[in-house]
Amino acid sequence: MALTPMMQQYMEIKKDYPDAILFFRLGDFYEMFFEDAIVASKAMEITLTGKNCGLEERAPMCGVPYHAADFYIAKLVEKGYKVAICEQMEDPATAKGIVKREVVRIVTPGTAMTQALLDEGENNYLAVVYIDPSGGGLAYCDLSTGEIGAAEFSKKGFIESLINELVKLSAKEVLILASEDGRENELQSELNNLSDAYVTVLDSSYCSRPLAEERICSQFGVKSLTGIGLGERPMSVIALGALLTYLFETQKQNLSHIKKLKISDLGSVMSLDKATIRNLELTESLFDKKTQGSLLGVLDKTRTAMGSRKMRQWLKEPLNQVKPITERLDAVEVLLDDVLLRNDLREHLKQVYDLERLTGRVACGNANGRDLLALRNSIAVIPEIKESLKGCGNHLLERLEREMDDLKEVCQLIDKAITDDPPLTIREGGLIRTGYSEELDLLKDSIREGQLWIAGLEEAERNRTGIKNLKVGFNKVFGYYIEVTKANYNLVPEDYIRKQTLVNSERFITPELKQVESVVLNAETKINQLEYELFQGVREELQKHILAI
């Protein structure tokens, strides 16, 4: 016996992702089969069923609704599983044969983008470590914000320094590159004892220096590594190249928000080891490991998620040089003494959403209409923040004001294109504001006329037939219909065509209703598709402004 064509397609895709649970899109559900289904059903606490697959025994199967997928993916990722999202790449209604499907991204603990998997007050770092007998390289990235950095360790005892940096980062996922002396297993064991990170070892193919240089130059738009400070950091280059390769493999798209590389200068900040961070309870209490009761819990009165993450970072990396310390304290003093300025800024910042993660979702193509509105509403406050800072008497705050882009074009684009109450999904219409697209407006006008005709049909047909309880209705399976109870069946006109028989009634359609239905439903499909395309266009235009945001 042979597998059915659909199951053959599933197995072909699954063989490329043996270490991930495959979420296989079937209509309104993501389905899992065979071993994936057995593992996932236990981890997600859902029912395990079966499906005929062409073999003698049914294939184990479980599934989740696509609109609730983020919740279930979060459950799996929190338990250390990778999830490969396989989407339908064409409309099943128009596809010939098996619908084309492809894996569009892989979700891991360090590449999470959805709110269900992210703590707004904490970065979600993915880190890559490379070590050889002479030293080590570290690269890290928060995909949700676009922050990316690298560090080099070459002094005696570099392993300890490297581990301290990883603990400081609190990375959610750590990838260790296989080394010539086989020390990756020892490092993996130590990290497993020190952190809750998902730690895995990547094979040596990720250690290619030429591939690393090509990836880095392409991502940051440079011709040589010297221009971004990596000319004399060979181990950082390999770690960073492997990080970018892993991100491209899992996200399968351009990462346009990752453009500004931070080279860690370990002398510019105080080097705190893992014991110090833990025993001083800087970001979490010693016993229950919660923010409440730590120094961060006491100090963090920030008004934005970005501010909260910044304060966490500053506490773990205290400044080590007099000039920047003095600059920061002078700015704090101005904000402390000037009550009106401080209160104004706090009120303005209350209205600012998480710009870093919003732009991350825009760059990765995950942003919906509500994300764009949150972006617009945040940007709309910028002129007021700039006005508050202007002439405040502190050069650091005034420099921030001068460097802050008011992003007027971004605000105007979103305001012109997106409705005030967009739906959560981006494929079912209701996204684009009237006046943004002439073609869309014409389609909406044509559908409105048909809907008005249908709205008046019930009363017109009651008058024509004498059937007082006649109803005009609609459902997704049968479309529009005229419903007549069986007691009034003798009054049904000759031009009524039977559509569906129920227990106590019959449903009909007329040639004219069928014609109007065709116009309305076809227009709805076209509207939804056009709105989706227009929304994608807006999102792509916003990607050009990511660095400015």
Task: Characterise the protein shown here.
- The chain has 549 residues and is an alpha+beta fold.
- 44% of the residues lie in helices and 17% in strands.
- The chain has helices spanning 5-14, 34-44, 69-78, 158-169, 184-194, 209-220, 234-251, 274-279, 295-299, 305-316, 322-337, 339-349, 355-363, 369-379, 382-389, 395-403, 408-417, 438-465, 511-543, and strands spanning 20-26, 29-33, 49-51, 59-65, 82-88, 101-107, 126-132, 135-142, 147-153, 173-177, 198-202, 261-263, 471-475, 479-485, 497-501, 505-509.
- The chain has a six-stranded mixed beta sheet with strand order 3-4-2-1-5-6, with helices on both faces.
- A hairpin with a 7-residue loop joins strand 3 (49-51) and strand 4.
- Helix 6 (209-220) crosses helix 7.
- The two termini are 57 Å apart.
**Average pLDDT:** 91
Based on secondary structure, the structural category is alpha+beta
Walk across the major sheet and give the strand order: 3-4-2-1-5-6
How much strand? 15-25%
Which spans have pLDDT < 50 for at least 5 consecutive residues?
none
Helix content: 40-55%
First-residue to last-residue Cα separation: 57 Å
How many beta strands in the DSSP annotation? 16
Largest sheet: 6 strands, mixed
| Radius of gyration computed on alpha carbons | 29 Å
The 3D shape can be described as globular
Number of helices, counting only DSSP H or I runs of 4 residues or more: 19
